[in-house]
């Protein structure tokens, strides 16, 4: 049995140190969350898995870590200044604020104010004088700095299309409608790939990336049965998109977008290029007199080609929520309930807990610390030395936070060099020779 509702996941996240409300001691800040000791490990493991799959396991992707503060001209020519605003109305009766096209039925039309435009991007002053003349935006997505760095990456790596540039980083949106815990927030992290392809091959690449991303989610423990593909209708597509497929997930609050895979055509590189009239740009782009670079490549016939872009874009926070929800299980054993997070081992915040059976026995404790240090040195992730006493409580705690195995050091260890290894999912226990423990641990990952 999985979580009944999102409140169960929220309770687990706070109780066990995954996620806290930001500035909670001052009443909290709506739409902002802090990742605790276990949450930061889970989040980093998800990002590492994405990076490994997207960059390390391919020969056609480079990485990037670009600035968060974004020059105004970048977001002007990307179209964000024109499109990242929503018409809002206030309900005089309930006191709530809504997007003009999302007013609930219980608000009467006569109680609504006239729509007003609201900017979804955060501005900040740049320089010592705060007079409004010099400002930057906190980036609303990680994609634009990938596009503005296209020429830098090509020149420094000698890449030719098809190839991609990947980035994981923070983005900021002044969201009005915040909902469902970390599903929609104001500060979030994105895992984005911009994959540049020859025009005309874009539709095949789009299909290939949809399948690739579905396979990745399955490898993170999200079953295909929990996922749906949504071909975004043409009247709902973003202004830059030729086609978009959203991977939808059955969150506790309903079926919502987990990741989008968009065919952005040549809109982005075309928008940020100089000498646009020389580049045979297929998309409708605004004139750009500020850029100093041609974001294009020469084909074998020496003609300029502006690559099309396939963009798989996933939110780290939504990934955390989906993976936690998928892993959350409540099992009944002898009329007692056991909460267990059946996370894939490579995602588990703690890879193994090493537990001395008797916390005040110097020999057992010393042996346990030595084993913990050896396993930690393998570099598989965090290994915890757990010396809190009650072995049953330790097992239950580590079941609940998703630790794949618990290793108990006891008096027999001192005699015959074996330890007890307990499996999280089956609760099966077996004796393993200490000399074989490292190999047993490695096989988990």
From TrEMBL:
Domain Aminoacyl-transfer RNA synthetases class-II family profile: 7-345
One Pfam family matching this protein: HGTP_anticodon
Enzyme Commission (EC) number: 6.1.1.14
Taxonomy, superkingdom: Bacteria
GO BP, sorted A to Z: glycyl-tRNA aminoacylation
Keywords assigned by UniProt, alphabetized: Aminoacyl-tRNA synthetase, ATP-binding, Cytoplasm, Ligase, Nucleotide-binding, Protein biosynthesis
PANTHER family: DNA POLYMERASE SUBUNIT GAMMA-2, MITOCHONDRIAL, GLYCYL-TRNA SYNTHETASE/DNA POLYMERASE SUBUNIT GAMMA-2
Protein name stated in the entry: Glycine--tRNA ligase
Lineage, highest ranks first: Bacteria, Pseudomonadati, Pseudomonadota, Gammaproteobacteria, SAR86 cluster
